[in-house]
């Protein structure tokens, strides 16, 4: 039927083309101004009872008939497609998957960098909104509910009564599984009353394996006071209060140190404002993961001051560390104790080391033995790691050169067989030093001969595309070729459409030059306070 209507309409259009010819065809689309008689002739051509107007009405009627026919055809098509899709669903792989396989898939969907969030758009709550079968599986899988993050703040957009109901149901669904729980309270004004929530966590204390308490310490005092009988399996602890000096609570309430003296504790992360770690009777030698990140308001004469000397002392106490992150403050930026010769410090198991704060290394301490180090981060990094999978054979260094002299930087490049290198440069970083980096990574110096990935953020103002292309050519001529080279910069576009460079790209080189964006947008995040950058990179 639709074809017949189209054929009829085409015939009508063809017929119209010869029914009447306008004497004004040559004037159409111009600035011609018709005379009085011509205006009358034009009005007769377009008036409502003219042949053109009648033909237009006829065409509108035909179009309406076609749209009705097309709508009916679409309805039949949608019904048929829906029927086909419904039959396909009967034999879909997910419908045929055994329940045990679905459980493994659900567990793999849980967030890896945080505890599970009270967010219906994310696992595990998401699985309750798909179908009844998936909901039943999710509710009968205790491991799905073995972690939870609870933001005790108005900014998170949840009422205390709702959080209490969710937590009570969540903990029941977890059965007898070991638990990972994180509580977050940002400040006094916008926080919810945490007492009932804390009480519910106390009821399941014997099952806690990981606990994160972020907020004013005094509101968590009942949890901090628990001993080994109440927390027999707690192995990871994060304590964070960036708004007030923390030492006072341990002086006023010595029982608050019970939780950090647990014999089961192998990992601890502390973010504080001037914590005096000498007052804490930590079992340093049993720690395998350590993060000390603090806003240091203490002066060198005060006990809470944490400089390079104290960092070395902490490292000396922790021979079994595998992951470590320390924040160091040095008033004299030209001297950092970390660079000084000291007694030999051996960390035979350390795989990850992060050093941030306010300091400048003049050299790399050769007395620091790190035979298994595979991740080194020095300085404040304004970007998240951009690498994909890092194998056990790779060694990654993320460095802000503003925290080192050129000599210290070259020491590091010489000391470790790096395969991945990321440089985030500050504006005050000397341009000549960055040029030296490019030179020493190429023949004849050939520093970092195993380097396959190089990423540079915010290079110097003297950065040029031509120099970058020369660097690529030099590295591609070495025994081990560059696999990835990224530069994120402010400036003019870099032309990579060069025959030899494109041949490298065709062979697998990932080459990217991107202008940095200054857009710092802010949006709602249901994971507010769930984790910080240090804990994320250390897999705390």
What is the structure about, briefly put?
This protein is an alpha/beta fold and 540 residues long. Helices cover 33% and strands 15% of the residues.
- Proportion in β-strands: 15-25%
- Please count the beta strands (DSSP E, at least 2 residues each): 16
**Strand order in the largest sheet:** 1-2-3-4-5-6-7-9-11-12-13-14-15-16
> Overall pLDDT, averaged?
82
Task: Calculate Rg over CA atoms.
Answer: 34 Å
Estimate the global geometry from the Cα principal axes: extended
How much helix, percentage-wise, in residues? 25-40%
| Global structural class | alpha/beta
N- to C-terminal separation?
A: 68 Å
Give the helix tally.
16
- Poorly predicted regions are 12-19, 428-432, 519-524, 532-540
Sheet with the most strands, sense and barrel status: 14 strands, parallel
Keywords: Coiled coil
Coiled coil: 56-90
Protein name: F-box domain-containing protein
Organism: Favolaschia claudopus
How would you describe this structure to a colleague?
With 540 residues, this protein is an alpha/beta fold. It is 33% helix and 15% strand. The strands form two sheets. It has a 14-stranded parallel β-sheet, covered by helices on one side. The chain has a two-stranded parallel sheet with strand order 8-10. α1 runs antiparallel to α3. The protein is extended and about 105 Å long. This is F-box domain-containing protein.
Sequence-ordered SSE layout with sheet pairings:
Layout: H1 2-19, H2 36-46, H3 51-90, H4 93-96, H5 99-108, H6 132-139, E1 147-151, H7 160-173, E2 179-184, H8 195-203, E3 208-214, H9 221-224, E4 236-240, H10 247-252, E5 267-272, E6 289-294, H11 308-317, E7 323-329, E8 345-346, E9 352-358, E10 368-369, E11 375-378, E12 396-399, H12 406-415, E13 420-424, H13 431-440, E14 453-457, H14 465-476, E15 484-489, H15 499-506, E16 510-515, H16 533-537
Parallel strand pairs: 1-2, 2-3, 3-4, 4-5, 5-6, 6-7, 7-9, 8-10, 9-11, 11-12, 12-13, 13-14, 14-15, 15-16
Helix pairs in contact: 1-3
């Amino acid at each position: 039927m639709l074809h017949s209507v189209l054929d009829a309409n085409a015939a009508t259009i063809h017929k119209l083309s010869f029914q009447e010819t306008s004497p004004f065809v040559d004037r159409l689309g111009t600035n011609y101004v018709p005379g009085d008689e011509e205006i009358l002739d034009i009005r007769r051509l377009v008036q409502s009872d003219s042949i053109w107007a009648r033909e237009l009405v006829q065409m509108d009627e035909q179009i309406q008939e076609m749209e009705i026919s097309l709508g009916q055809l679409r309805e039949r098509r949608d019904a048929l497609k829906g029927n086909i899709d419904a039959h396909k669903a009967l034999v879909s792989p997910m419908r045929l998957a055994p329940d045990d396989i679905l459980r493994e898939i659900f567990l793999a969907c849980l967030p890896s960098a945080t505890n599970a969030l009270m967010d219906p758009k994310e696992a595990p709550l998401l699985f309750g909104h798909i179908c009844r079968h998936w909901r039943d599986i999710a509710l009968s899988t205790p491991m799905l509910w073995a972690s939870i993050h609870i933001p005790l703040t108005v900014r998170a957009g949840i009422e205390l009564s709702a959080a209490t109901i969710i937590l009570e149901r969540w903990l029941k669904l977890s059965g007898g599984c070991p638990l990972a729980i994180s509580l977050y309270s940002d400040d006094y004004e916008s926080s919810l009353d945490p007492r009932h929530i804390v009480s519910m966590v106390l009821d399941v204390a014997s099952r806690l394996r990981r606990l994160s308490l972020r907020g004013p310490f005094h509101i968590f005092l009942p949890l901090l006071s628990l001993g080994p009988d109440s927390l027999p399996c707690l192995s990871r602890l994060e304590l964070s209060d960036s708004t007030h000096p923390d030492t006072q609570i341990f002086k006023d309430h010595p029982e608050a140190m019970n939780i950090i003296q647990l014999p089961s504790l192998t990992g601890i992360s502390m973010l504080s404002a001037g914590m005096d770690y000498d007052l804490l009777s930590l079992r340093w030698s049993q720690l395998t993961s350590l993060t000390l990140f603090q806003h240091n308001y203490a002066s060198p004469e005060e006990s809470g001051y944490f400089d390079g000397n104290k960092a070395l002392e902490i490292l000396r106490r922790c021979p079994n560390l595998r992951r470590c992150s320390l924040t160091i403050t040095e008033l004299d930026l030209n001297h950092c104790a970390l660079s000084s010769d000291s007694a030999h410090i051996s960390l035979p198991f350390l795989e990850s080391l992060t050093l941030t704060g306010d300091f400048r290394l003049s050299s790399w301490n050769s007395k620091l033995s790190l035979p298994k180090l595979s991740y080194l981060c020095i300085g404040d990094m304004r970007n998240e790691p951009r690498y994909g999978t890092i194998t056990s054979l790779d060694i990654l260094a993320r460095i802000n050169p503003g925290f080192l002299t050129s000599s210290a930087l070259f020491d590091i490049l010489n000391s470790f067989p790096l395969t991945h290198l990321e440089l985030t440069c500050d504006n005050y970083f000397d341009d000549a030093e960055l040029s030296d980096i490019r030179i020493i990574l190429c023949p004849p110096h050939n520093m970092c001969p195993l380097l396959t990935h190089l990423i540079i953020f915010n290079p110097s103002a003297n950065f040029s595309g031509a120099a970058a292309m020369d660097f690529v050519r030099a590295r591609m001529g070495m025994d081990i070729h560059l696999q990835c080279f990224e530069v994120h910069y402010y400036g003019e576009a870099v032309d990579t459409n060069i025959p030899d460079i494109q041949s490298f790209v065709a062979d697998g080189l990932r080459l990217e030059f991107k202008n940095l964006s200054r857009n710092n947008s802010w949006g709602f995040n249901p994971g507010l306070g769930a984790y910080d950058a240090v804990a994320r990179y250390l897999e705390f």
